[in-house]
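re: ur question from earlier - yeah i can do the single chain one, its not a big deal. heres the input i used so u can compare w yours
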Amino acid sequence: MTDPLLTVENLKTHFHTDDGTAYAVDGVDFEVNHGETVAIVGESGSGKTVTSESITKILDMPPGEIVEGAVRFDGKDLTSMSDKQLQDIRGNRISHIFQNPQNGLNPVYKVGRQIGESLRIHRDDLSKDEIRDRVIDLLDRTGIPEASSRVDDYPHEFSGGMKQRVLIAMALAGDPDLLIADEPTTALDVTIQAQILKLLEDIQEEYEMSIIFVTHDLGVVSEIADRVVVMYSGKVMERGSVEDVIQNPAHPYTKALIECLPGRGSSMKRIDGALPSVTDPPAGCRFNPRCEHAVDDCSKDDQPEMYAVDDDASHQASCIYYGPGHDEAELETYDNRSETQRDTRADGGHET
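and the output i got, formated as tokens:
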């Protein structure tokens, strides 16, 4: 069996602030195999972006700091590399696409120059004409019409969707093994969003690369991902194949996210409450203050281990109901609690 392209092991990225230590990423584990798409899902503030930026250490350090864990890419630990060593990885073997295409391009430089920057850094064997030809080819492959003339245009001459295509072309310039796409469709309308998702699928097949797709939208995940990592408050709540996680969600948080999707039931639900403070997270399961199924054991000790949901150990959930002494069927029992009981717990009370 082929080793994973990327392995993230017990990753902890903290930020040292005036209000105390912010546990933005607090013990995250997942793998990315060759040629697959892994989606990292969760609400804003759950630690998705910090996780993706920790992989190549592009987050602001300080105040951010990777305090523990390993990020093994092709067998080498990126967390132990210097910035100089990482320069050979960033934009070359691992590329990023960021959320807002408006902010991802320098307005005073032509797009061709910006796309070619990676080639000038990593491919000193190419002439200026060869770099220009390569840039035009990338623009053409990412769906920019009349690429040979548009290569000399400035970012303001492109629409939002076309800017995102330019950023994708920029990310592909180094022919990466891994593409990290952080909410690449959030700022786009639904039609353009669908086009960008189709483009990512097409280029993944063409370039035979792996993708980490960061998003809050489970609807998008079902279209593009092979496997899913569900994050909440810096922790992994659930991970598994897209079929397992979407069709058979195990963790109450994942179930709640799916119930929030449009078209699920007679009316769209919402998750009451808010994410906990990253400087003062709750004991036990991070989701327990908002969880309809929470019992006293959920607020004890640390985050539960990742337990196998069924016979297939690849589908795992960080929930006591899948651990020793509990039964998944108990979840149904707590579904039937009265709204008064749930409100009591949300207000800080305890149930018997």
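The longest helix spans residues 190-207. not sure if urs matches, ping me
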